[in-house]
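May I ask for a single protein's sequence together with how it folds?
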Amino acid sequence: MPLLEDHIAVVTGAASGIGRAIAAGYAREGAQVALVDVNAKAAEEAAQEIREAGGRAASFALDVTKREDCIAIAKRVAAQLGPVSILVNNAGINRRNPFTAEPTSVFKDWDDIIAINLNGTFNVTHAFLDALRATKGRIVNIGSIQSFMHVRTPNSPAYTTSKHGVLGFTRALAAELGKYGVRVNAIGPGLIETPLNAQVRANDPDLIKIFMDHTPLGRAGKPEDIVGPAIFLASDLSSYVTGSIVMADGGYRTI
């Protein structure tokens, strides 16, 4: 029996990378998936791929920084698909300006990254809260190795701050929502080859070497490497797991 049969799952940032892979993985496990992304065209293309493979999927355009739009999408998903029982907060961005860079860029990085990575996670979760409580649902937040550390590469401090915040938010909600039967966990990816970092990977081999020298498995991850942990945390296999983060970083934090 598929692990997620009879579940309705919402995945943000589902048009590409990790979110797209998780959405496809959930569909293979029997879930009906709502692919949510600011890029409506790419989200629909990803949903179409799932449908062509025999899965059930619909796409929805959403800017997670807009709280009222998140509420509206929650209502649309409920009306079109039914009660949501799985939420994956994956939408996120990163930039690599240091704190000592030109102030205008530093200020913009902070505002944009916090708005999407942290406030967006809050906005979407709150919008679907009633449904998740009613279904005794599962929330999976995408953290990072930077939920624990600021990696030794050029990186915006706003990103590290946002991912620390996502882990704190995960733990706070796990403590509060457990009495409703809602489980809240996170995944902590390391360097994953996605469109988000494609330019850096292509143009900065020294940066990639820093990551690889620090990764016992000796390779960058693929989006599919996050799918297994995401299925585990959304399924009954993890029925007694909440407030945790599953690291999928190739062992980065061991060195």
